[in-house]
Amino acid sequence: MVGNGAARIRVLVVDDAAESRAALRRALSFDERIDVVGEAGSGAQALRQADDLVPDVILMDVQMPDGNGVEATSAIHLRHPATRVIALTAHEDAETVREMLAAGAAGYVVKGTAIDDLAAAVRSAHAGEGPIDDRILPHVLDDLRRLLGEERQRRGEAERLARMREEFVHVLAHELRTPLTVMSGALRTVEQVVPREDVAALVRSALRRGDQLEHLIEGLELIGDPGDGNPQANPARAVRDASRKLEETPDRLDLRDEDWPTIPERHLTRVAYELTANALRHGRRPVSIEARREGGEGVLRVRDAGGTDVDPALFRPFVQEDMSTTRERGGMGLGLFVASRLCEAAGGTLRILRVDGETVAEARFPLRR
Question: For position 303, what pLDDT does the model report?
Fold first, then answer.
């Protein structure tokens, strides 16, 4: 009897040889904590038995007719993730070990294992551990070393690419900003000294385009700037700073005066600016903004009365209607493109939704401690 009222471990034995199943059943019967509730002679039978019995642990032969153990293990793992599968094989084949572990097997035991070791493997699997036969362990360790080496290389490559991206963005922004400053200064000089209205209109249009380009450059700089080592944003301050930069103001603010750790405030301010500008310029009033914690996330929502089209193209860079130099309003793509990349850089997401007739721009940021 099992003491303290503990439930016995329900085991399904799967092997294409009847004598092997009988031997496994006899071996496990010596442990009073284990109850063999069924047998199967093929992968297909194993899957049906797993559906009917939902055992705690399955001892799965690897090579069987009518569907092998790898395929059966994969299917059972998907249907019954709480059931632990222990792979059984007569061979210490490294490739088979990889395939079974990848299919979802919790452990691996070579046939002929001592009775006590077999029962211990069943108990370990049921407890959530991963029993690995000592004869298989060298193959597993070799794979682990290889995977760790590959992961180290990938991490190094990712860090190198991140540094290259930051350097490229900073160089690009600097090289764009310098000639832009010169051109803007020259255009303002022309505006002052040339009184003709047709020339002045052209200059004003060029200056407006220059301001838009400078705004874009600032966004690119932010995308390439990871922030300091311990960033923290105050959403109420960020939204108010963004609103002050706009020529129009939203109709309603619902802001929490709280801190959002791990989010650079300059990034949050720019996201708030772009979402608010998009709602004011391309949506319909009333426009409202709310910023608050929701669970482990900081959520910034900007609502308007439904004027903005909910279109994935809004997040593409450089979306515009035409190439006119006199058009009063630019395309929405640049601002939302920058906002979406800033959200992604902080591990968050940006979505444009239609909710009850309103257009809702929702930025979510994970607030990791």
Answer: 93
